[in-house]
Amino acid sequence: MLAALAVCSCASHKRGPWTPEEAQAWMDAQPWIVGCNYVPSYAINQFEFWQEETFDEAVIDRELALAESIGFNTVRIYLHEQLWYADAVGFKGRIDRFLDIADRHGIRPVITFFTNGGNHEKEFRLGPQPQPLPGVHNSNWIPSPGRAVIDNPDEWPRLKQYVQDILRTYKDDRRILYWCLCNEPENFKNGCDVKDFMPAVYQWAWEVRPSQPLSSPVWQRPGIHGTATKLDLVSFACTQSDIVTFHCYSKPTEVEAMIAMLSRFGRPMVCQEYLARNYGNTFETVMPILKENKVGAINWGLVNNKCHFHLPWGHKDGDPKPDIWFHDIFRSDYTPWSESEVAFIRSMTATD
What topology is assigned to 30-349 in CATH? Predict the structure, then answer.
């Protein structure tokens, strides 16, 4: 353990990605990374999660206790630059309180900065947030920073200040597991091309060079859906990140194919989004593959509520309610959607 920490400490003093050996030393010092993407049940989006008038420590404490109860040791969370622009000191104070709660439950979060995902049809403002659209999966998630900013480098200096302030504040904080800089960079569904933006974000992060790893997740295996993914961005994310992260909501055979492809980069791996039960991507089918291959396992969702993560993508108001939940583990009253599934998760996270 001490040797691994020494390697990572040394790596943190250089600008640029860790070597594969430094990354592996970091991974060897961790338990099997297992957890979920977490949005508190009271929140429709990142604003409602973090802004002062809605940030609810009691709910977060109860829900991270649930995560702890099934053996999770991490949760992945999303920030948003608009919260920092409005009140950097208050925002960081709430991040600190969140980290304290997580630490009490033995959970080290993964912190995500930017994402192309979300509702690009609306202009979101701080304050009261829209209600969920009935029958719609994740209807009011907020893009960050959005296509208009990505396409305008004149807007980037303020983003650089935001990223570097957060990283400098927490660069040596043992409560944080690692940083996710750009979520699904090669996902162009909303016209957001980060081919210039993502390298800039990595440069900002390297200027600080936190002691925790930096990463950006690969969205899809190249070729699985024609030319949907972009090889230049996949290559950048997997060669310039300290650890390789990826998302896979497909069948178990595709999870295995992703692991095989990404193993060529010689770096530790974390699957930081999975679980689409009606696609055959379940805890029972995917967790054993990830654990056997020493790949971290972070599913989507914990407690069901405002974001309607239990509904599949494309579900509309009036469609039949699904018999099988898409994401999430617990109902809004904190009882499991499936007792047998929770028992299986506990069996996988149990330590010898």
Answer: TIM Barrel (3.20.20)
Per-residue burial over 192-228, b = 16 or more CB atoms within 10 Å of its CB, e = otherwise = bbbeebbeebbebbbebbbbbbbbbbbbbbbeeeeee
From the CB of residue 320, how many other CB atoms can be counted at a distance below 10 Å? 7
pLDDT: which is higher, 296 or 3: 296
Q: What is the pTM of this model?
A: 0.94
Distances (CA, A) of 255 to 290, 293, 327: 8, 11, 17
Residues 192, 195, 199, 201, Cα dihedral to 10°: -10
CB under 8 Å to 297, separation ≥6 — which residues?
A: 32, 33, 34, 35, 270, 271, 274, 286, 287, 290, 291
Does residue 350 have a pLDDT over 60? Answer: yes
Q: How far is CA 66 from CA 61, 102, 311, in A?
A: 9, 11, 21
DSSP 8-state symbol, 300: E
Q: What distance in Å separates the CA atoms of residue 112 and residue 215, rounded to the nearest whole number?
A: 9
User: How far is the CA of 147 from the CAs of 77, 114, 156, 173, 194, in angstroms?
Assistant: 21, 11, 12, 32, 9
Residue 74: in which H helix or E strand, if any? strand 74-78
Secondary structure of residue 113 in the 3-state scheme: strand
What own/partner pairs with CB < 8 Å and gap ≥ 24 does 315-324 have? Answer: 315/135, 315/136, 315/137, 316/135, 316/136, 317/133, 317/134, 317/135, 317/136, 318/135, 319/135, 322/278, 324/277, 324/278
Greatest Cα pair distance, the chain, in angstroms, is: 58
Q: How far apart are the first and last CA of the chain?
A: 19
What would the pLDDT profile of 217-239 be if each residue is shown by its tens digit? 998 887 777 667 788 999 999 99
